[in-house]
Every structure is written in structure tokens, then in C-alpha cells.
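Hi there,

I know you've been waiting on this one. I reran it after we fixed the sequence typo, so this is the corrected version. Both the input and the resulting structure follow.
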Amino acid sequence: MTNKKHTPSYTAEFRTRGVRLFREHRS
């Protein structure tokens, strides 16, 4: 994972999906 160019995009998508999964798991 040395692609720092894909860090912002990956982080944004991961955060959106992570939040949704985390919220469903915490529900």
C-alpha cells in the first residue's frame, strides 16, 4: 500500500462505507 495518491479517495470511500457498517453494527 505505497499508493499515497489514492489515500484521499480511499479514505473518503472507506469512511463512508465504514460509518455505514459501523452504524449498522452498533444499531
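Quick highlight: The two ends are 32 Å apart (CA to CA).

Best,
R. S.
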